Amino acid sequence: MLLFAEAPPGLTLTGVLGLAAVLYGFYHLKAGPGNSGQARQRDRRQQAQASRPPGAQHQSESLQAGFPQGQLPQGTSAAKQAVGSPLQAQLAGIRKVTISAPGVLLKELLPHELQDGASLRPAAARVLAEMLHSTAVYIMAHVSDDIGEATVRGALEAGGLVGKGPGQILPHRILFCSTLAGKEALVRQLEPELHIDAHEHTVKSLQRFMPQLLLISARQTASASVAYKNVAYAASLEAAFHTGQ
Amino acid sequence: MASKSRLLKEARECAKAPADLGISLQPDERNIHTWRGHIRGPSGTPFEGGTFELTLSVPQNYPLFPPSVRFKTKIFHPNVHFKTGEICLDILKGAWTPAWTLLAVCQAISALMADPAPDSPLNCDAGNLLRGGDLRGYASMARCYTLDLASAPARQLS
């Protein structure tokens, strides 16, 4: 009371005017005309883009980086854009994946090499486990006989990849065939959105039928000899999915 | 009307069919010309452990003309279209005679499951695997689908 009584009239006026100015400003901000609403929407979009992680920001680009659909450069230059992007973002729109285990998940490539044993690639196994969380995955292997089948199954089981849990594949979704052409028939039957293979011939044969293929090959010459719009190349599974391992 | 009395007779016979036949077959409660069948996957085949549902559509002029039979459960077999369930079997086409019954048709389909004919495939991938001698690939794929799509509890065959 004392304060009000002693306050000069000028100050009181300023206080009222100040309050009015604040209310006026607030009114414009909150219930302003439509054009400022659009501007706010634009701002919000910009803010959202800025706050996204770099991987998510270029979700469509990173998908292309992994499995090109257009005129993408070969090799890893496109892949570098998406380093650190989550694998799930790269798999957006992909419900079913088929993977030929030899040369992709396993170090061995040819059926006769699998007779003595199969060695799991740990980094590729980690990618597979993550892939299994969101995608229906079918693994296949071209083997000579029951021994080859047992070594492949054994290697996947030893890696903890087979079972009913998250990040595991159901045992019957590991398919085996005894011919190279048989593997192509399996892939065509399953109609995946993406097939991953280390065998160049299979990729060449399937490129007419499959929407997207990924050829895993350590040899860069392989990339030069197979140039198709729907085929991507990478030295390893982890390199293709930029998991940084 | 002839077809109706014949179908009623067949329905009575189907009800008496032995359980170890691995086949159950019954008409729709409201329409005697629509039947539903279940075939147990023959043992020793990649379909073992699965139960496969069939839909049989019986024409008015049955048994002069064959029923139209389709797999409702998806099956990987060279003589069955994977998406439509259409079956390529001679007795369902030109080789039909009125001596066949709906139950016998189901038995023939069960035999076809165990003994595929890959030379005239409705599923080219299954046919190519068998014709290329890749039994491992064929069995592997067929088993995968059996477990994924046909291994629901076999209530109809209990």
From TrEMBL, chain A:
<keyword id="KW-0472">Membrane</keyword>
<dbReference type="Pfam" id="PF22978">
    <property type="entry name" value="HAD_Pex22"/>
</dbReference>
<dbReference type="InterPro" id="IPR037485">
    <property type="entry name" value="PEX22"/>
</dbReference>
<feature type="region of interest" description="Disordered">
    <location>
        <begin position="34"/>
        <end position="80"/>
    </location>
</feature>
<keyword id="KW-1133">Transmembrane helix</keyword>
<protein>
    <recommendedName>
        <fullName>Peroxisome biogenesis protein 22</fullName>
    </recommendedName>
</protein>
<keyword id="KW-0812">Transmembrane</keyword>
<dbReference type="GO" id="GO:0007031">
    <property type="term" value="P:peroxisome organization"/>
</dbReference>
<feature type="compositionally biased region" description="Low complexity">
    <location>
        <begin position="47"/>
        <end position="57"/>
    </location>
</feature>
<feature type="transmembrane region" description="Helical">
    <location>
        <begin position="12"/>
        <end position="29"/>
    </location>
</feature>
From TrEMBL, chain B:
<dbReference type="InterPro" id="IPR016135">
    <property type="entry name" value="UBQ-conjugating_enzyme/RWD"/>
</dbReference>
<keyword id="KW-0067">ATP-binding</keyword>
<dbReference type="InterPro" id="IPR000608">
    <property type="entry name" value="UBC"/>
</dbReference>
<dbReference type="InterPro" id="IPR050113">
    <property type="entry name" value="Ub_conjugating_enzyme"/>
</dbReference>
<dbReference type="GO" id="GO:0005524">
    <property type="term" value="F:ATP binding"/>
</dbReference>
<dbReference type="Pfam" id="PF00179">
    <property type="entry name" value="UQ_con"/>
</dbReference>
<keyword id="KW-0808">Transferase</keyword>
<feature type="active site" description="Glycyl thioester intermediate">
    <location>
        <position position="88"/>
    </location>
</feature>
<keyword id="KW-0833">Ubl conjugation pathway</keyword>
<keyword id="KW-0547">Nucleotide-binding</keyword>
<dbReference type="InterPro" id="IPR023313">
    <property type="entry name" value="UBQ-conjugating_AS"/>
</dbReference>
<feature type="domain" description="UBC core">
    <location>
        <begin position="2"/>
        <end position="151"/>
    </location>
</feature>
<dbReference type="GO" id="GO:0016740">
    <property type="term" value="F:transferase activity"/>
</dbReference>
<comment type="similarity">
    <text>Belongs to the ubiquitin-conjugating enzyme family.</text>
</comment>
<protein>
    <recommendedName>
        <fullName>UBC core domain-containing protein</fullName>
    </recommendedName>
</protein>
